[in-house]
Design brief:
Cro/C1-type_HTH; Lambda_DNA-bd_dom_sf; 434 Repressor (Amino-terminal Domain); Transcriptional regulator with XRE-family HTH domain; DNA binding; two-stranded antiparallel ribbon; 4 helices; mainly alpha
């Protein structure tokens, strides 16, 4: 499951502002801010909104990693080899 830290980290990898993510997804700024808020997060967003954000970030080259997929640590993000 996607979490708030992953969304923020993915934006940082792409050098996108929240406004750019709003533009790429068509979602409201309020929705993006709530999804990136550790106290709210995507867990409390609709499945459709989570899918929209995930798709936009993946289409830009972000790969989402589940806990244990990396060498150590929890869930994370990285850029695909063709985007580095």
């Amino acid at each position: 499951m996607l979490n708030a830290n992953q969304i923020r980290a993915a934006r940082a990898l792409l050098n996108w502002s929240q406004a750019e993510l709003v533009d790429k997804t068509g979602l409201s700024m309020t929705t993006i801010r709530r999804m990136e808020d550790d106290k709210i997060g995507p867990e409390r967003s609709s499945a459709g909104n989570v899918e929209t954000v995930t798709r936009a970030l993946e289409e830009a080259g972000v790969l989402f990693l589940a806990a244990g997929e990396a060498t150590a640590g929890g869930p994370g993000v990285r850029l695909g080899a063709d985007k580095q």
